[in-house]
Give the backbone structure.
Amino acid sequence: MECEKHKRGEVEIIEEMKERNVSILEVTETKRKGTGSQMLEGGYTKYIWWSGVDNSTRAEAGVTNITCKAVTDKAIDVKMVTERIITTAVKIESEAHTLIVGYGPNDGN
């Protein structure tokens, strides 16, 4: 059931990206476990990368990077640093740019 919940959320986010012409979306507090990537078939977006807590840990934190086809084709490096940080290097024209998504700790206060 949790997998279906994530999938529905991703579909909604991708539709919003397309509607608003967003090329790169960095999402925090995704509560997705493990690290990985998924190539999407067709559609507006091409790739989703995520970094979360270990699979044996209760879901918390987590970051996700979603890119449209044009940006994915320019990605030269993606690093899932921790469950709170992903870096993405893209080459646009002749310049390399590094995009960083970070999710700061929440102490509950």
Remarks:
- The longest strand covers residues 75-82.
- The chain has one domain: 2-102.
- Strands lie at 24-28, 35-39, 45-51, 63-68, 75-82, 85-92, 95-102.
